[in-house]
Amino acid sequence: MTNIGVILTLIVIFGGLLWLLVRSISGREVDRRIIFLFIFVSVAAPIIFQITFKERATPVVEALFANIDGLPAGSKVLISFDFDPAMAPEVQPMANAMSRHCLEKGHKIVFMSLWATGQSLMTTTLSRVILPEFPEKVNGVDYVNVGYKAGNEGVLNVIVSDFKKMFPTDVNGVPLDSTQLFRDIRSCADLDLIIALGGGRPGPKEWVLFVGDPADVPVGVGVAAVVAPQLYPYFPQQIVGILGGVKGAAEYEQLLIATHDRFVDMETPGIDMMGPQTLAHVVIMAFIVIGNIAFFRSRSKGGSK
Amino acid sequence: MIVEPQQARVVIPGTVRFLLLAFLAVVVSITSTATASEPNADSTLLETQQVEPVTSLVAQDFKYDNGERIELFWVPSVDDRLVDGLVTGYEVYRTVNEGDPQRLAILPPGANTFRDEAAEIDSVYSYYITTLAEETSAKSVATEPMTSEREWLNRDRGYLFLIAFVIAAAVIFFVETAKRGKKLFIRKIAGLEAIDDAVGRATEMGRPVLFVPGIHDMDDVQTLAALTILGRVSRTIADYDSKIFMPVSRSLVMTAARETIKSSYMAAGRPDAYNDDMVNYVTDEQFGYVASVDGLIVREKPATIFLLGAFFAESLILAETGNSVGAIQIAGTARPAQLPFFIAACDFTLIGEELFAASAYLSDEPKQLGSLKGQDVGKGIAMFFVIAGTVAATISYAWDIGPVNDVLDWLNQVFSSN
Amino acid sequence: MKRQIPLLITFFVGTLLIISVFVPPLGDLERDFTLFFDIIAVFAFFLGGGNLLRIHLMKLANRRKDWGFSAVTVSGFLFMLAIGLFKVGNPGGIAEAVDAEGSWFKVMFDNVINPLQSTMYSLLAFFVASASYRAFRAKNREATMLLIAAFIILLGRTPLGVMLTGWIPEWMSVAQIPNLAVWIMNSPNLAGQRAIMIGISLGVIATSLRLILGVERSYLGGDSD
Fold first, then answer.
1. Looking at domain A59-266, does it have CATH number 3.40.50?
2. CB contact (8 A) between residue C35 and residue A151
């Protein structure tokens, strides 16, 4: 069934592209809705027929993976969910994969968010990944969810020197002083790693500027693909690793599966989404080629006049 | 009578003998237990002695602060090892004005620094560290009593001050030079040259102008830059008697934009044409805002769209929708990630610094244009140091020449000061 | 006078915050002013929310064009506001987090806001395709170079890059498309990004100085005092 689906998809897409090429060469306009239709098919078909590809991790992803892997058990990791549902398809798989990795290695996690919408997404990770997969982990001991706090960079400016001044309680009103995890955490300087997930502002860049650098804590980031190029200037000195978009998430998932047997059957939304992304990329590349052919043709016609 | 001595012997009955033997056995066993447990007691004693305290504990005032920080440095206990280490952690204690010790923190093994961030200038502090092991602990020698100090100048930021001072002085110098009437050359910026034509086009077509100031609040300089351009654009709109829509995603931007447009209409002598509803708040939510603006574009089909300010993922969605209704689009942002999208979908794009230069450029006031010249001095300085740093790093890496290494170290020192 | 007071406040606060960078006892000022701004912005929300309601209720009352959209907006706004404020259906009552599992807020968030936002964001895929079809043309040398770079990055972001060039031996691994894509991002892209960032930073400095010194006052609405 899958094979037939793949063949059918490829026939529809490449047949359509051929038709588009002929149409463009003959100098006829291509309506943008036709382009939208191609993208729809190239995204929908791999989801329906479950077309996936094997990933190989790039150095920027490997670096972050190795950093989390290399921390001694009991290390304190802060994961900040600074994104909204729009970015969630790209960033949430990273959040889930890294949360799994941290808990598996015995690290302690502090969950927080600088975006109001991040709090609900954090709850999703907790209720759908951590509670069912790590029932032995205890809230307050192995992880604490401190929730969302308004104030953007202002929040970072405070927690860099005094965490409990900004977050006196966890998301359910339990004083942080009464949790075992926060006995050793006064400020961000007491953390061993910060993972900033997001892509907007405040986001990873603000974490580096306001917390990572001043408190000398390593920062790893997971961002929407479009933001990743902006963060390369900070790698590897100020950012220890970058996960960019769906591909970054897929590479991380692949590393996790390859190195930890218990994750072999875990959900891999990142890897699953690489099918649509790959096919959509191919179609976009085909559009660029066809657009250029049409352009050169119209130019040569214009030149001959 | 040989019998007597025999009689004189104490005859021990069997039962008593048994009890005696049992007693002896108990005594022997207790004694042997005691002797057996003695080495154990010795070894516990030995372990207690083996957990060595931290050494070389130093407390020093943090440079440069308001007197609220004291830094501690120490050499971890010799028993703090990765393999077979006995240390389970460290406790940091401080005494204030010779009072009772207060525990400040528990640190994991391997820690060798701590920063007390709650010191007060008038108090005298002394610190000691307790090394923790499974069943025992060891206290270090306490530090000499000390006080924290307030510094009025952050000398670490000397170079930063120097660089900022030179750039600021250059800006002010050129503003003053321009005020005195010196003609300054400013290159043409196509996107800004097109503003009047774009507004004129909307007027001719009888369609509105849409102004989107990005999705950030007034604390972003990009939003301020957008509002300064809005001042000029709305003045032209008022002059041409065109119509403007300005949906915003922040309440403060709404109030500020209203003031800007109102003043422009007043300056154009048409206060009656101004209406508060030209600017309306939609939502802080990024994509809710985008949906609303997209809907507005599709329904009202504006002839001209300004996309100026801080934009994120919505940049291409807005620009492509604008493109689909055939609007002339002038975009500008200082978000490098969004610039390619604007360049692909808009007619004119103000790249980064051009957005900030726009207001000065449009005003044509010498003093404002002078600030752009001052900015060029900053660029010159940046270029000089980029080239010098690259050359020095290359030479240092390839040939390891002493003086060049010194130059490189100095450059690192200058530009890593924060 | 109406213009002078804001200019004076801008000058005073701007200068003070610049000085605070170099004077440690004033170090907390930036944080405090950021918090002041946030507090003001939160209260300003009432202005925004009020404006939203006023405009859409007027539209509804007058049955102006597209009043149906206004009905959706107003009802959505009031509904979410109510279930958030009163924590409707919250298993832990008013004391628990607003988005606790099972609360109406969480249900609406997961089933309405989440898919709506994802839908808007996913429009990007369609618009990227149409924009690249129209804009990526090899019009000149620079545009051609951009086109080639874009192709390598696109291939590098997919497993196709590995499939096509995975056979290249390890000592030549920089020529493998995924590595080439990383190189483009790390070197030419980085150089360009840094140049733009330096330009932007200088632009921010110059704009800030114009605002602080009162040279730039068009955001206050024109130049007339």
1. yes
2. yes
